[in-house]
TrEMBL record:
Transmembrane segments: none annotated. Residues 162-402 form the Aminoglycoside phosphotransferase domain. This is Aminoglycoside phosphotransferase domain-containing protein. It comes from Acidocella aquatica. Gene3D superfamilies: 3.90.1200.10, Phosphorylase Kinase, domain 1 (3.30.200.20). It comes from the Bacteria. Coiled coil: none annotated. CDD domains: ACAD10_11_N-like (cd05154). Pfam families: APH.
Amino acid sequence: MSGLDDRAGAQLRAVLAAFREEVKPELTSPQTKFRAELIDMLLTRLAAEADGGDAGELFWDDMGRLLGQTPANDERARNQALSDLLGHAQGGDGKLVALIAAIAAGEAKRRVALEDRVAENLRVLKTGPSSAGELSISPEDVTGYLRGRFPEDPGIIATRVTVVPGGRSKATILIEFTTADGPREIVVRKDFELGSAGISVVEEYPVIRAAWEAGLPVPQPLWLEERRSAIGGKFIAFSKVRGKSMGTLFASDASPAFLREFAATLAKLHAVDIDKSGLSERLRWAREAHPVRALIDHFYDRYRLLPPEPLMDAAFAHLRLLMKDIGNERALVHGDAGLHNLMGEGDHLTALLDWEFSHTGDPAEDLTYCKYLVEKLIPWDEFMAVYIAAGGRPVSPARMQFFTLWRTLHLAIHTGTAKLAFDSGEDQDLRKAAIGYNTFPKQLRDLAFDLARYTGGSKL
């Protein structure tokens, strides 16, 4: 298929599988069902054509031998050259007869193979593994698990299991169940076995427990389930918190009062004593001589598993040059402290979620993660004034610039990892495709902009 590489067939099949399994069953009107069948048919054929295959390549190899030249790489150019040759052929010499026979035999072989692939895709869609399947958890499965965990309540029963949309590295699931004492609700944060960020809920749990005990606004962690077999992955069970999500990576309707409370919360978080809280034994890089250097080295090793991107190598090199200018902070860092990870009720912050990237490091990392959106809503100086008044320490411009660049590079590593998982067939979930093919290029654009800004004039 012209213009598509050898991964396109797998990519289109992943789109088609999600369309068949998650979209088509929800359609109800005759017109939308009809349009869905047309889309299904089109995607089925495109996936089959994108696969290519030996039959097509062998056809063009044969043509090259007969024509005495190497066929063009572009399929349109190949077809045009062959069409022109046949259109201007004269007479009935043996070479022309052989060419016609070869075209007929080769075309029959490759087009029969294509239609066989289309028919096979219509009958049984062959796709790679997908973490989307890990979201299919029935109330019956949850009931069985709960009765095993709480044998003193044999009548316990799960009444509803609802997947919260948007989880990319972990699944968030709302579970409603009835006990002898009445109805209850919990929230489960579950590992994906496929294509995870490499950080398990098992590592998150002690940090969240310490944050809860320190009085930070986090959902109460009820228990940790370390068995993968329980409901298809290790998970943490939380109490349900009030409020709504306070935004995305790019937008929020948070009030100034809410953001001031957020600033004070970050100050309290960064003041947690990692030794007295017991986190020094569990928190990443707590025992390293220079936690930020350990952070950069760790993610450089993660980056080296991806296809090379000179821009990302340049960003790592620049950060290492600046390491001497940023000091050696050793605070508790959330690692993903954006408004997309906040729950709120009016002006009140009810929960800071998703602690999977927490580690020992520099508070400037959390501040740069939220600055992009916060300063669109209130002046950054106002946010920092509240932060410092609540116990946070001043942060130098050098540290803010360092971690502004790191924020974009860090996100590029994660989104690039999602792209690799999809391209390699490790995880054919459309979430990985969306991250890899939409967000990853945007992160590279932002990284290029940040790196150019910091190397083209201003000196840290």
